[in-house]
Known about the structure:
Strands 1, 2, 5, 6 and 7 form a five-stranded mixed beta sheet that branches. The protein has a four-stranded antiparallel beta sheet with strand order 3-4-9-8, with no helix packed on it. The chain is mainly beta. The protein has a single domain, classed as Sandwich (Immunoglobulin-like). A hairpin with a 2-residue loop joins strand 8 and strand 9 (about 110-120). It has one helix spanning about 20-25, and strands spanning about 5, 25, 30-35, 40-45, 55-60, 60-70, 85-95, 105-110, 110-120.
Amino acid sequence: MTACCQMTNGQTNAAATATERETRTYRPAVDVIETADSLRLVADVPGARAESIDVRVEDGVLTIRAEVPRRDVQEGVQWRLREYGVGAWERSFRLGDDVDSSRIEAACRDGVLTLTLPKAAHARPRKIEVRAN
């Protein structure tokens, strides 16, 4: 696959203080699926709402960012175990010339972000007609 490649790192440890959890940047797991016409990136962003997800392309780099809000806690409640992380999700990919970045689409459902990256016309397979002479 020449159209994109992984760029960022930063997987974090869940065992942290509340302050550390709020300032962490997590790296979502991403599947990349290639079809004849496009690449599809499927990223897990649990806890993020569609309106808090920022997807942008700048200088040939596709970046996904999402903020996960802190959970409200009732007064008088003590946490016995707190593994769920809050903070930001971020992942970046360098796009190749095979991707038409002006036509990228994004949708989020049930904590899963799906990006469709259409291939540029020159990168799509095409059938060439053979004429009889």
